[in-house]
Amino acid sequence: MLNKSAETAKAVAFLTALVGRGTALELGCGNGHIALPLAEEGPHVHGLDNSTRMLSLLAEKDKHRSVSTHLGDMSTFNLGRRFDLVYCVNDSYTHMLSVEDQLSCLHSVVSSLEDNGHFVIHLSYPNTSDLPGIGVHGDQRTTVVHVDGRRTMVRFARHDRNNQIFTLQDLWITPQGMRTLPSKLRYVYPSELALLTRIVGLELVERWSDWERRRFDASSLRHVSVYRKVDLFKPSYAQRAA
After folding, report:
1. Angstrom distance (rounded) from CA 43 to CA 231
2. What is the pLDDT of residues 50-75, one digit of tens each?
3. Which residue in 16, 70, 78, 161 has its CB near the most CB atoms, within 10 A?
4. Please, where are the H alpha helices in 113-236?
5. Reading across the β-sheet that carries 165-174, which strands appear in turn?
6. Cβ atoms of 234 and 26 closer than 8 Å
7. pLDDT tens digit string along 95-113?
């Protein structure tokens, strides 16, 4: 598995380079594993999440009250102010289970961005290659995600390819016992994201395969995409350059 602390440091460095000491909003901030270290770098960070439990965990860790938290739904939000940076990382965007909600989220992002602000989204590239949908079990997959001397994680997945939804059940096996973590995700292809962002008035500035700005290509498993607001009534930079 990825070294989470190292990945967090890389993500924070990437986001800090965009926001500086401005204002940032994290969508789906959870317990603050990105928002808190980002706030330590200087920007004023806000976090939005629909879980009171996650926001309580963030508050417990936030000894200096460096992150302003908001309880709400990322599919439709208005915090009454605009930000230099809005970001959504670690597949949080895919927890919205319809294209309507995902599009509505992007509309809210545009409304919440300063005119020169940026939107960063961090997503996995959908892996459906071993879920052909043929036969009794063709829409299901079992994967050993992690094994070490202390614990094992097995993921059970079911694929609804018509709606682009994975229903997941993660099983953690440890010496202390077993626990499960259910989730449901609607994956998004980069080409689909290109259309959704264009509809709301976001223009792609750069796309990388990771936080270290490695090139995004056909072998990439994830992508970090950076957008900026554009005037829908003016030609985009790409159109002007054509």
Report:
1. 26
2. 999 999 999 999 999 999 999 999 99
3. 16
4. 190-200
5. 140-147, 152-160, 165-174, 177-186
6. no
7. 999 999 999 999 999 999 9
